[in-house]
Structure prediction request, 182 residues.
Amino acid sequence: MQPNHRDIERILVSEEQLKAKVAELGARISRDYAGKDLLMVSILKGSVVFMADLMRAVTIPCAIDFMVVSSYGSGTATSGLVKIIKDLDQDLSGKDLLIVEDILDTGVTLSNLVPMLRLRNPRSVRLCTILSKPSRRLADITADYCGFEVPDEFVVGYGLDYNERYRNLPYVGVLKPEVYSK
Ligand code: IMP
Ligand code: MG
Prediction:
């Protein structure tokens, strides 16, 4: 077995399930945004795999952009600030923004980022995430498009990392506990 796969205890979302869901989300987005000025914004690095698949499942004209953000402080609901490490390249006025995320966990990052982006006068802002951990939510935020709800366990693969590893796994899985204690 390859070293990456060896560290996985169990698969939560298979490659086939991801593929089917991305096709479904792409079709919905293509219908919902027909005639609009769609700009898909990927929050790096976790959403890069999902973004690459999702944009090819979208059949209407769209533009893409990338952002790098980091949350300040302890990441609690009250810390309230996001630092923009890499900003968008383009003006947002009149654009229909679709934020593409890997996982909606506490929701703190996005609940702080969305108001900052709204100040730039996009026509609309919606959120699309491939994974969601509803039991961990601290901030009042929901995804307009959500792939799979996962339990409160640390997951890797399909873009998600542990110490920058496992992003290239084609499925979403749970790491073996001994990996953390290494
Ligand atoms: P939050 O919603 O502000 O708590 O932050 C979500 C971010 O934390 C995601 O974009 C991921 O980068 C990271 N994250 C949360 N849960 C996991 C996980 O289970 N595995 C890997 N990264 C995670
Ligand atoms: Mg992320």
About this structure: The first strand starts at residue 8 and ends at 13. The chain has five helices and nine strands. Residues 43, 46, 102 surround magnesium ion (ligand 2) (CB under 6 Å).
